[in-house]
Write a structure and sequence with these properties.
By secondary structure, this protein is mostly helical. It is 64% helix and 2% strand. A two-stranded antiparallel ribbon has the order 1-2. Strand 1 and strand 2 form a beta hairpin. The longest helix has 33 residues.
């Protein structure tokens, strides 16, 4: 049944924290695990935004080196970060083919070669490779963030980052609750999709080799959409009723089970984040001038 376990590699999958995925045990947590939750989220936003502005080779290499060092310092195997990119690999390949064969930006240089009446330019290949690297870095960063940040910390960090902007408003808590629900529902939907795939295969709807394999996969994927959509609505209704039964009132001030405080290592990491971001911007600016 290995063909049905592709969803286990997804970076937000509930299986991504299992021992086989490369995540450390509670006694083997690394440096990144002990950072303040708000600092983790801020680092994700800053580094994730920087990815889309980097185009020079040196900043891209430096970002990759820091990503590898971050995985080792947190005790997470780098291969587990790569596994988080496997589910989106077909999308990345499809986007690459679209960029190469169907999107042309008007180049003065002659084409490298012609394939199926399509002119392939050097600039198109470089832009496509850059796009591929950006997607890879982004999902590796998300996988690393998911590996070092429990959902409770994500909720606490989101609420803490929004409080200075909204004061006593209930919006920070509601936004944190929304983030938790999203992170909770994605693994549930992935598990239900895996169960539906196994049920369809048991009824003779499995993937077959040979001609028509791609068309059959697309039709089976579409057949999963309606049951997943209905299941998501049912889970939403059950969750709303359970929250009301436990006395949840929107807008009411609520406390937190755990409190996180700013420590010295958080300040050191913040300084490193700022210096690293400025360094990347400097190399990128210098590369644009050249």
């Amino acid at each position: 049944m290995n063909s049905f376990h592709s969803l286990r590699d997804f970076s937000l999958s509930p299986f991504s924290g299992s021992p086989s995925s490369g995540s450390p045990s509670p006694g083997q947590k690394g440096f990144l695990h002990h950072l303040h939750p708000g600092l983790k989220i801020m680092s994700l936003l800053v580094l994730g935004s920087l990815i889309f502005f980097l185009s020079s080779p040196l900043p891209l290499v430096l970002f990759g080196v820091v990503l590898v060092l971050g995985s080792f310092s947190s005790g997470v195997k780098f291969f587990s970060l790569l596994k988080g990119c496997f589910p989106i690999l077909p999308f990345m390949v499809f986007t690459t083919l679209i960029q190469i064969f169907f999107i042309h930006r008007g180049h003065d240089s002659p084409p490298l070669f012609i394939l199926w009446h399509c002119r392939i330019y050097r600039e198109e290949l470089l832009f496509t490779a850059l796009l591929f690297i950006r997607f890879f870095y982004l999902f590796s960063l998300l996988s690393l963030f998911n590996a070092v940040s429990p959902i409770s910390e994500i909720s606490y960090g989101t609420e803490g980052l929004l409080k200075p902007f909204f004061g006593k408003s209930a919006f920070p808590h509601e936004a944190a609750l929304l983030v938790v629900l999203v992170f909770r529902f994605i693994p549930i939907l992935l598990m239900e999709a895996e169960y539906l795939k196994k049920a369809q295969a048991a009824r003779g709807g499995g993937f077959r080799k040979g001609r028509g394999r791609v068309v059959q996969k697309i039709s089976m994927a579409l057949a999963l959409v309606i049951p997943l959509f209905i299941g998501a609505l049912e889970h939403g209704v059950i969750l709303a009723e359970a929250m009301e039964a436990r006395g949840y009132v929107p807008g009411r001030k609520r406390s937190s089970l755990e409190e996180y405080f700013w420590k010295g290592r958080d300040g050191l990491f913040l300084v490193f984040l700022l210096c690293f971001s400025l360094l990347l911007w400097g190399f990128q600016f210098a590369g644009d001038l050249l």
